[in-house]
Amino acid sequence: MKYLTEYRDPVAAKKFQQAIHRITTRPWTIMEVCGGQTHTIVKYGLEELLPPEVELVHGPGCPVCVTPLEMIDRAIEIAARPDVIFCSFGDMLRVPGSRSDLFAVKATGGDVRIVYSPLDCLKIAERHPERTVVFFAVGFETTAPANAMAVWQAKRRRIDNLAMLVSHVLVPPAMNSILSSPNNRVQGFLAAGHVCSVMGYEEYEPLAERFQIPIVVTGFEPLDLLEGIYRCLCLLEAGRCGVENQYARAVRREGNPGALQLLRNVFEVADRLWRGIGTIPQSGYRLRREYAEYDAELRFNVSPLPVLESAECCSGSILLGITKPHECPAFATRCTPERPLGATMVSSEGACAAYYNYGRHRETEVAMLP
Amino acid sequence: MPVENDLSRMTCPLPRTEYDRVLLGHGSGGKLSADLIQRLFLPALGNDILNALEDQATLHMDGNGASETPTSQPRIAVSTDSYVVKPLFFPGGDIGKLAVHGTVNDLAVGGATPMYLAAAFILEEGLKIEVLQRIVRSMQQACTEAGVLLVTGDTKVVDRGSADQIFITTTGLGTVRSDCNLSIRNARPGDRILISGTIGDHGIAIMSLREGIEFETALESDTAALHDLIRTMLDACPMIRCMRDPTRGGVSSTLNELAQASRVGVKLEEVALPIRREVHAACEMLGLDPLYVANEGKLVAVVPAADAERLLQVMRSHPLGRNAALIGEVVADHKGMVVMRSPLGGTRMVMMLAGEQLPRIC
User: Fold this and answer.
1) Are A201 and A251 contacting, i.e. CB atoms less than 8 angstroms apart?
2) What angle do CA A114, A222, B349 make, to 5 degrees?
3) CA spacing 20 to 30 A to A62: which of A300, A344, A350, B359?
4) How confident is the model at residue A334 (pLDDT cuts 50, 70, 90)?
């Protein structure tokens, strides 16, 4: 397939693999930020192609994984209301809240729908003027412009039965949080290419400077990742810091001005709670006051429920690279994608789920059915 | 900006309650379906024949059910399946055709010659007679082509809203030659794995019509009766260990079931998988994996290595096996698991689908 097979070419991959082996002289720990990158790394078994000195740590860039439990409980409560049509991207439906998940709400009669674009919610809202269409606006900077567009259009077209349950998070504050941790082991970053196609990469330059680390803006195909790793290693081995752009076919330093303008119009930066991490200052988006009427949290006065938590999961040290998913005692036994203990096991982009789905043959034997 | 979050103390909450209701995922043919069978149906209804979990049951009518018992009497194979596809008519087929082909195939992959069908219809009040007529005509045509007789049936009508237009259940009967003993438990290390053609065609053809993701494609469902291809294969190579039609849950579910039931590992070569460009493109766009997408006219066969090349030629000379391919082998390593080698040389596990296959956020 044009523009795809080129980036999965085995011959070119071999060249990068050899180059990586050639330049690596000592151990390095590199974090890929985005869950989509983790997915590709594990799906193509890229870690097997790297020298043993190079360790990849799978970062917090999986929107499903970092959406706080409180927010999922809130979504479940809103979705169960008879006057609501609750719309979401597919993989949020399986994420368990404290007591239930959105699939279970659907099975008990809630109108829960999978949509492929938030703009589909406008059509649904026009077709059902008697009900409120609520969209679960989760994700990083990548999904934010389309969500902003849906709200902006709703206001312009006077569609008032649309609301957004917003749980948007931003990458740079999370990277800052990781680098500031006393236990940090990450020495270089592969920044998330799609996030940067919206935001640009100017905002990563102060991070690279402050923490003296290399950051390589990287794409999502196997060759992108191998090249990103190679360029990051080149900088590490040379003792240099700074931001480089591997994903130049999609990313410019200044980002996408149209999308950024729209984001500034509709959203403002706010503190956000990250699942398992806690509140990170100025790390997410919320709707501006001018769009308050579209805020599902204001429209539905959902009383906060006590959140039920499990103590066994160690996804914190997994995100820091201290523990690998398969080293967790609960991995693949008490914690599986069907019965996850932690968010990193829920989404196919979570580090634990990626290991479980694609990498377990290297570590364990699967339990046999009777 | 001060940051006080200590990530090392981070715990990940997420207790999960058992589902106390049936979810759509329980019908996806993947892990949740398997759980329902293992934890609910088998404890209550299990017996030696049902527990084998073949696509069809093979029986002796003298009351001795064990299919391994040597006897010169032909055995009876029986299989049943319900069809609830939406939309009812799709490129390449319709629910009626599917209801005949699906059950015919479930019999045929067990080595049976399909002979008789029974059909039960659940109709929603308000269904247009003209629609029902089109479906029944299509069934009649499919029966003729498959050489089976529909010999008994039943019709029920339910209130509007209690069913979605029409549900069809078909049950098939056929005979199995006494020398034929195909089973999902038969795979041995060294065996080769063949597929009869391109994967994912049916699932993607249906998905292209689904609300919200409609896309234009010339792709058609692959729905077809496989009995003739299977007969040709068995005549040419009686040593075939096992055959399955990878419908719901796709090739991944079939191969995981095989790895589990035969207590072997399965090794796949990604570059060998026959996938149409349109299917590949749609899967890339929607974030799906073709290994999990349904097929309705394909089969997976496990054969001893020595017979693989010859059987592949036999399959390719049949109209329903033109794109047949050798996609992997059975190994003694990683028992119970399916592992695929990517074109880049890395390996990954191919899991059984857990719940429904969901498009990813980004």
Assistant:
1) yes
2) 70
3) A300
4) confident
**Could you report the per-residue pLDDT of B265-290, keeping only the tens digit for each?**
999 999 999 999 999 998 988 878 99
Q: How far B277 CA lies from chain A's nearest CA (Å)?
A: 7
Give the minimum alpha-carbon distance from B27 to chain A in angstroms, rounded to a whole number.
13
Inter-chain CB proximity A8 and B343 less than 8 Å: yes
Contacts of B348 in chain A (CB under 8 A): 42-45, 357-359
What percent of chain B clears pLDDT 90, i.e. is strictly above it? 66
The strand ranges marked E within chain B are: 57-59, 75-83, 89-90, 93-94, 112-124, 149-158, 166-176, 192-195, 242-244, 265-269, 300-303, 325-331, 338-341, 347-349
How many beta carbons lie within 10 A of that of residue B311, not counting itself?
A: 24
The one-letter code for the residue type at A211 is F
CB of B337 within 8 Å of a chain A CB? The answer is: yes
Distance (Å) from the C-alpha of residue A332 to the closest C-alpha of chain B?
Answer: 13
Residue B121 CB contacts under 8 Å (≥ 6 apart), including other chains: B153, B154, B155, B156, B166, B167, B168
> How many angstroms away from the CA of A240 is the closest CA of chain B?
24
Which residues make Cβ contacts (< 8 Å) with residue B293, sequence separation at least 6? Answer: B199, B200, B202, B203, B204, B250, B279, B283, B357
Q: Give the whole-angstrom CA distance, residue B311 versus residue A223.
A: 37
Residues A92 and A109: their CA atoms lie apart, in Å, by 18
Averaged pLDDT for residues A163-187? 92
**How many inter-chain contacts (A to B, CB under 8 Å) are there?**
231
SS3 assignment, position A120? helix
Amino acid at A188: G
| pLDDT tens digit sequence for A93-132 | 877 787 788 888 998 999 999 898 999 999 999 999 999 9
CA distances from B156 to A329, B145, B166 (A): 52, 27, 10
Among A177, A348, A368, select the one facing B263 at the smallest CB separation.
A368
**Chain-chain contact of A44 with B342 (C-beta, under 8 angstroms):** yes
Residue in B with minimal Cα distance to A87: B212
Of A96, A359, A362, the CB nearest to B14: A96
> Which candidate from A46, A63, A315 shows the least CB-CB separation from B12?
A315
Residues of chain A neighbouring B27 (CB-CB closer than 8 A): none
Tokens of B351: 């899991």
Q: Helices (DSSP H) in A157-247: which residue ranges?
A: 171-180, 193-199, 205-211, 222-237
pTM for the whole thing? 0.81
Q: How far is B79 from chain A (nearest CA, A)?
A: 23
B362 near A CB under 8 A:
yes
Pairing of β B192-195 and β B325-331: antiparallel
Phi/psi of residue A141, each to 5°? Answer: -60, -20
Chain B CB contacts of A341 below 8 Å: 12, 14-16
For B220, the token pair is 């058609």
**How far apart, in Å, do the first and last CA atoms of chain B sit?**
30
Return the structure tokens found at A225: 């990742």
Q: Dump pLDDT digits (tens) for A285-307.
A: 999 999 999 999 999 987 766 66
Q: What DSSP state is assigned to residue B115?
A: E
Question: How much is the ipTM here?
Answer: 0.71
Asked if B12 is an interface residue toward chain A (Cβ–Cβ < 8 A), one would say yes
Q: Which residue of B has its CA nearest to A314?
A: B11
B41 shares contact with chain A (CB less than 8 Å):
no
Alpha-carbon span A135 to A153, nearest angstrom: 14
